[in-house]
Amino acid sequence: MKIVPVLTSCCLALALAPPFVHAENLTATEGVNLFLADPELGVVGRYSAGGESVYFEARSGVAKAGESALSARLLDAHGRTIAVLGRTMDESWLVDQSFDAAAAKSSQKLALALAVDLPSMLADPAFVAERAVLVSLATGAAAADLSLEYNVKSLSKALPVAPSAAIADFYARAAGEFALGLDKNGQMVGNFRGITLQATQQAVPRDPNEAGSGPRIETYTRLTSKSGSTIAAEFGGDLEQDGWAPEIAVDESKAEPTNSLNDLGSAVMAAQALTKMSVNGYVALANPAIVESFGRLASGLRDNLLPRTANLRAATEKAWSPTNNKTNDGQIWTSNIFTSPLGEHSAFRSTHRTWTSSSSSYLSATYNWCNHGSCPYSNSTRVKCTYLGAHTRSWRYAAKCTTGYSLTSWWGHNCHDDSWTELRKVKGYAYYPTSARCNDAAFYAWAPNCSD
To answer: Would strands 151-153 and 81-85 be described as parallel, antiparallel, or unpaired?
Structure first.
């Protein structure tokens, strides 16, 4: 596989530019560990010392008049929010309001050290605002009373604004680190700091798209880590990608390596780098549909870059143990199609989470199943329902129908049959890729429920 580098001429011109922020795999290293640093997607990381950790995040949300769009928060070692500065992310950050005073106090001890050490690790001028809000939050949290509940405060002072030239320079340097080309099968292959991006497409001339016209174009993309394990993948339809197993394999005996938060953050930056290169006209190999697919994968990963507590899970789940430390979750997503209001499209998203204890987990990998139409995290789709799986010893990979595709599901399958089959496979239930809903004369116009 030969990868053709692009923008190699820019590297000399950028030799004297400020150091580009890296999200290296420093899982066990004390001090500041940046998982993600991007002017548009924000900053996510962890500070560790003496066996204790505090997580931090700065991200822009929808701002009211006179309000800064940027907000920041600190989280304890299990992923519980302990302090927030700014109100633009309340809808997302305050869904889980669990609080543990002892865990908060342990993480709070590191807040002042984070305020001191972060500026040197986030020195790029493109992050002047993120640096300011995180230092302000950490400094304030170090002296705050977190013994009863977490603090949520409005941002009372104006933040500095990163010069547009600094942001443009950041993305230009990112482009200089990107290599892009075609493999022997004509599939797009890219590499960004050890993260591999793969993409291919398939045209289905005889089948309509969601607008009722044709041909339908199905896109397949994947992000893999330095070790070759899948971090995120998106499947447009029924085409099976050679070498992408065990992601779409029935055989689950092969263990998927656990990806670190550094891997996930690097994958987000790789997808974002491709997106910015496309916007700036640096790359022609990735068409808009491929770029949008990687953007969806980045969005799904970006929303899951920090640990999560068990509070939002079902109370009936099986007990956690060091070997029973995996969960398989699923979501049904829906969107309108040309047959609306007589029907809808459905897609499926599955996620693998690794549990470090009975109360805390982090994302390991995620998979989007578009089912011949709009994909999870598309602008037109919305979450219908979420299934939270019990603890297990192994991952479960969604299985799709292997019969022919038919919009009406007449002796074949449509998107809802795929969603039903994928969900049942992730649940560990019996599924029937060649029979039952995948090959009957019944027409299903609406998405299944997560209780089906």
So the answer is: parallel
CA distance 56 to 75: 6
Query: What is d(CA 88, CA 71) in angstroms, rounded to the nearest whole number?
Result: 6
Contacts of residue 62, defined as CB under 8 A and 6 or more positions apart, other chains included, come to: 69, 88
SS3 299: helix
- Record the tokens describing residue 317, joined without a space: 């789940």
Give Cα separations from 219 to 200, 339, 341, 373, 417 (angstroms).
6, 23, 26, 10, 20
Q: What is the pLDDT along the chain (452 residues), one digit of tens a residue?
A: 222 222 222 222 222 233 334 333 334 468 999 999 999 999 999 999 999 999 999 999 877 776 789 999 999 999 999 999 999 998 899 888 888 999 999 999 999 999 999 999 999 999 999 999 999 999 999 998 887 677 888 887 788 999 999 999 999 999 889 888 888 877 889 999 999 999 988 887 766 665 666 677 889 999 999 888 889 999 998 876 655 644 444 344 445 567 888 999 999 999 999 988 876 665 556 688 899 999 999 999 999 999 988 766 654 456 788 888 899 999 999 998 765 667 899 999 999 999 988 888 899 999 999 998 899 999 989 999 999 988 888 888 888 898 888 877 777 899 999 999 999 999 999 988 888 889 887 888 899 999 98
Cβ atoms of 423 and 330 within 8 Å: the answer is yes
Quickly list DSSP for 26-88.
-TT--EEEEEEEETTTEEEEEEEETTEEEEEEEEE-PPPTT--SEEEEEE-TTS-EEEEE-ST
